[in-house]
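2024-03-11 09:14:02 INFO receiving multi-entity request
2024-03-11 09:14:02 INFO entity count = four
2024-03-11 09:14:03 INFO echoing inputs for audit
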Amino acid sequence: MKKFVAMSLVAVAFTIITVKATEAREYKIGFIGPMSGGAAQLGQQMKRGAKLYMKLHKDQLGKHTIKMIVRDSKRPGGPIAKAAAQELITREKVELITGLIFSPNAMSVAPLVNKSKTPVVIMNAGTTFIPNMSPHMVRVSFTMWQAGVIIGEHAASNLNCKTAVAGYTNYPPGKDSINAFRHGFEGKGGKVVDEIPMGGPGKVPDFTPFFQRAKSKKPNCLYVFVPAGNHAAAVAKTYQALAMRKAGIRLIGPGDITQDTQLQGMGSAAVGLVTAHHYHMFLKSAENQAFVKAWKAEYGANNPPDFVGVGGYDGMAAVYAAIRAANGSKLTSAIAMKALKGWKFESPRGPIMIDPETRDIIQNIYISIVRKKGGMLVQETQKTFKAVKDKCKELKLGKCGKKLY
Amino acid sequence: MSPFLNEISTVLVFGLAYAMLLFIISVGLSITMGLMGFANLAHGSFAMMGGYVTVTLVTQSGVPFAAALLISFVAIALLSIPFERFLYRHLYRRSELDQVLLTIGLVFASIAGVTFIWGPDPQLIQMPNYLKGSVDLGFNTFPKYRIFMIIAGAMIVAGLFYGLERTKIGAQIRAAVDNRTMAESVGINTDRLFTWTFALGSGMAALGGGLGIQILGGIKPVFAFEYLVIFLIVVAVGGMGNIRGTFFAALILGIIDFAGKFYFPEGGAFVIFAVTILVLLIRPQGLLGKN
Amino acid sequence: MVPNHSSAAKAVNYLQTRHRFHWGEAIPWILAILVFYFLPGYRLLATQILVMIIFALSLDLIVGYAGIISLGHTAFFGTGAYITALLATNNIPDPIIGLIAAAFGAAILGFLSGWVLLRTTGLTLLVLTMAVTIMLAELANDFDEITGGFDGINFTNSDIFGLIELDQLWYSSSYIYVLIVLFLSFLFIRTIIYAPFGRMLIGIRENPRRMSAIGTPVHQRQVIVYVVSAAIAGIAGALWVQVQGNVTTEVYAFELSGDVLIMLILGGTGRLYGAFLGATVFKILENVTEQVLGTDQPYWQFAIGLVLILTVLFARRGLFGIFEDLGNKWKERGQ
Amino acid sequence: MSDAVLETKNLNKNFGALAVAQDINFSLNPGARHAIIGPNGAGKTTLVNLLTGVLRPSAGAIFLSGEDITTMSENERVKHGIARTFQINTLFMGLTVIDNLYLAIAERFGGATEMFRPAGHHIKVQEQALHILTTLKLEENSLTVVRELSYGRQRLVELAIALALDPKVLLLDEPAAGVPSTESHIILDAVDNLPEDIAILIIEHDMDVVFRFAKRISVLVRGSIMAEGEPEEIATNPEVQAVYLGEADHV
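2024-03-11 09:21:47 INFO inference complete, emitting structure
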C-alpha cells in the first residue's frame, strides 16, 4: 500500500512536472458556418453555442488559450466553405476545423482535411454518410435516421396512425429522413400512402399545395421534415390554416418542425405537435437548466437556445477535449481522434458519446409534445430513448456502409 | 361533397390568393419597366421593406394589421421618392446593364441593411382573430386569410383599373407608356409622372410584402432576391407596362403554380418555368404586350 | 490634300495595329504569378477567382460584344461542371478530357437554347435565360440518383497527362493548371474579338437593326457566338469543380448567374480586362470584408452593394473605365 | 421579264383589317432616279420595309433583276444588291466612322465570319472603306466616333454605309430629313453625285429635293399608287394637287 501511495505520488509529481514543462500554447481553430444569406440564423446560433461554451469553461484548458477564427460559408454549396477551409489551414495554420451547417459544406472540406490531416468536429451537417468521407471527422450533431426511425415506430405503435403521408424538403437529408421514418413506421405495420417532395432547401415555399395534397389523401398522420431555420413556422401555420387537425390528420416529425427558436412564433398552431428529437430547451436535466439559464443571460430572454445552438456548444466541448488531450503539443488528427473516439459528455441534451467505430454521435432521442403553459409554448418529454445510434450505419445502407476516402 | 368540386375549388381559391399577391407586387415593376424602360431589379427590396415595416408596426407598436399595411404602403411609397429622384433618375438614359448593376447593388445593400436592424431570423406576425381559422363552405374549407387575400386583392385590382382608366393621372400614365415623346409634346410632365408612378409601384410592392408575410413563412432578408425571379416572370409573361397583362399573367401563373405543386410535387417549381418559357416563345412581348 | 492623306494614313494605322499587344496587358499575368508565390494561403480563393474570370470572359463575349444580356449563363457553367464530374465518377477521370467534353456539352446546349431563345431580346430574353437555368437546377435536384442533388458528387481527377496531380491542399498545380487554361481561353477570345468576327459582334451590340440592313444574318451570328461563349463557360464550370473535387446544384444557381453578370459589369463590359478586374474585386470583397469587419453581420453584402452603386454613379464604364481614364490623362500629360 | 432591276407585282400588306399597301406595281431600271412622295401615313416607310424585307407582303411579289426575292430575309436581299438608308440615322453610334464602313464592307466580302485572323490584316476592306470616305469627303472624320459628329455628317455616314454595300438598288428614306438647312446642301450634293449605274428610289417629303433629283415620281396615297409620271406631269396633276392641298388644309 505504501509502495502504491509512493508510486502514485511520484506519478502525480511527474505529471505536474510534465504539465509544467509544456509551455502555454494558443490553439487556433477555424469555425465555418453560414453567417449571412438564407441560413444566417443557423450559423449565428451555432456560433453563439460555441462561444457560450468557451465563456463558461475558460479554465478548462489550463494556461493554454484558444483562438476561434470565424469564416462565413455564405451559401450551401461547397466552394466558399472550401476556400475558407484552405485558407484557414494553410495561411492561418489552424489546427482544427469546426462548425459546418450544410452537408455540402462538410463534404467539400473532406478531401482537403484528408490531405492536411486536420481534425474536424462537425457541429451540424446531417447527411448520414459524411463521417465516412474522412477519418479525421467526428460529428456531434445528429443524423436523420436517429429521430426518423423512432418517430416512425412511435406513430405506428402509440399514436394510432395506420396511414401516413410524408412531406419532405427535396434534398438528401430530407430523403434520409423519410426513409428512416418509413423504416420505423412500416416496420411497425403502418403504411406510407404518399411521399411529397416540397421543393428544394434554398427557399421556404408556400406549403399549402403540398399540404392540401396530403389532406386529400386522408391519412392519419402527416410526417413532415423540413430543415431547421425558416421553414418550421410556415409548416405549423399551414397545418392550422388548412384545418387539418379538424380533418383528423396528426402532424408529426423530427424536432426540426418545433425548433425552439421558432416555437413561440408558431402560436396555437403548434399545440399538440408530437416530435422526436435529440434536444429541446425544456429538457429537465440539471445540465440543461443551467445551460438555458446561462444562454438567456448571455443572449437575452428572447433569444432561446435550440438544437443548433447545442450543436455548437457540444462541438466546442469536443474541441476542448481534443485540446486537453494535446496538452501543449500540436493538435494532430491522431491525438484528436484518439481523444474523441468514445468521448463522453454530459451535454444539455443528456449523455452523449462519439461512437468509436463510426465517429458519429450516440445520444438520447426524446418524444415530445407541445403544450401551452402560462401563455408560452413549451415542449414536454413523453418518452426517452437512450443511447440511440445511427441506424443507417448499423444497417450499412447504401453509402452509410462504405468507406468513402 | 364531390371530390371533383373539392379539388377544383382548392386549386382555384388557393391559386387565386397567390395570384393576387403576385399581381400586387409585380404591377409596380411592370409599370416601372413599361413606363420608364427601367430594369428595376430592386423592386423586391421595396416589397421586403414593406414587410418589415408591417411586422414592426404590428408586433412592436401593436398597430392593427390592416392599418399597418396602409402605413407601410405610404411609408415605402414616400421612401421610394428620394430613390427615384436621386438614384434612378440618373440612369433612365443609361444602358440596361448600368441599371442592372445599380439595382442589384441596392438589393445587396438592402439585404445587409435589414439584417443589421432586424437580424437574419424570419420575422413572423400574429394575425388578428378575424383572419385566423378557416371557413367551411360545405364542399371545402378555406383559411380565412386566403379569402381575405382574394377580396383585398380584388379591391386593389378594381381600384387600380379604375384609377388608370378613369382618372386624369391614369390617362397620362397610359399615354406615357404608349408613347413618351408624344405624351411630353402634349404637355404631360413625365418627370413628375415617373416619380409618382414609381412611388405608387413601390407602395404596392410594400403592400404585397406585408400581405405575403403570412403565406410565405415570414419576412426575411433574402426575400428581396428570392422572389425577384417570380416577379420578373410575371412582368415578362404579362407584357411590360400592361396592367391587364400583368393581372392575367399573375392569375395564370398563380393558379398553374399551385396546380403544378398539388398534382405534380415531384416537378417542384418546374411547371411554372416551363409554362413561362412556352408563353414567351410564342409571344415574346408577353400576353398583352405591345409588339 | 496633305491633311487628308495623313488622316487616311492614321485610319489605316489604327485599323492595322489595334489588335497588337500593349505592354499593359502583361500586368494581370505578372500579378497572377506574384499571387502564386506570395499568397499561398489564398491559392484556392485565387484559383476560384481565375475560374470566375474565365466565366466572366465567356459572358463578356455575349454581353459586352454581342449585346445579348443573359441572367442564365450558369446553364452552361453548370452543364460543363456536371459533365466533368459525371465523367470522373464513370471512370473517365482525366481532367483534360473533362474540359473538352464540358466544352462540347455546353456548346450543344448553347446551340439548342440559343437557336430558340435568341429570337427574343430585352426582358423576355433575360427571363427566358433565367428560366432555363432554374429548370436545369430543378432537374439536377430531382435526378439526385445521378447528380447527388443538393449534396452533389465528390470525385477525384486523375493526374494531368498522368503526371501532375491536381493538388488538394496547397493548390499549386491546380492554380497553374487553371492559370494556363485561363491564358489559353483569353488568347482565344482576344483573337476572336480582334478578328472580323469580333468587329461584327460589336456591330450587333451597337445596332442590330443596322447590322441586318448591311446584310448580316444577325440571329445566326448571335447563335454562333452564343455557342462559343457557352463552350467557354462550360470549360469554366469544369475547372470550377475539378479544382474543388465536388459538384453541387449550386453550379446552376441563378444567384451565380447574377454574380457573374455583376462581376462583368462591375469590371466593365466589352473590354476583356473588365472581367479580370470585376471577378477579382467581387471575390475579394466577398472574402476579405469578413476578415476585416467580422461575421456578426453581412458586412460583405453591404460592401458589395455599396461598391456596385458607387461604380454605376461614378465610374461609367465599370472599374476598368477608371484605369482607361487614368491612362488617357497620363497620355495627355505626356503630350 | 423586262430589264427592270427592281420590280413589284401587286404588292399588298395588311395589318389586320388595315391595308397599308394595296396593289403596288412599279419598276426601276438600272440608273433610275425615282421618287416616291405622298402625305403622312400614306405607307411610304411600309413600302421601304416591304422592299428591304423587314416586312413580308401579304400578297404580291418582288423581283430583283428578274429573280423573285419575295421570301428573302432582309440580310439576304442586301447580299443580292438592295441597300437602304434610314429616315432616322441608324448607325453604330459608339464606333468610329471607318469602323462603320468596315463592318459593311467586311460583310459584303464574306469575311465577317473570319475568327482567327486579325481584322487589321484585311487590307482590301480598308482600302474600300477609305475610298468611299474620300468620295463622300468624310476622310477627315475617319477616326471620329459617330456620336460626336454633327447630324448632317452622320447623315453622310448613313449614305456611305449604303454605298459601301455596292448596291444595284439604293433606297433613300428622306436623306436630308432632320439636317439643318446650312448642312443640307452637302447631303444633296452627295446624292446628286451618286454613281450613275445605281438605281435609286428616294422617299421624300421635301418637294424641292424631289424635283431637283427625280426623273420619275410615284404618288402614294393610302397605300396605293395614285399617279406616276415625269416630274412635270405630277406637278400639274390635279388629283395630286388636291391631295397635297387637302393635307395642307389640315396642317
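2024-03-11 09:21:48 INFO post-check: DSSP finds 15 helices and two strands in chain C.
2024-03-11 09:21:48 INFO post-check: The longest strand of chain C covers residues 153-154.
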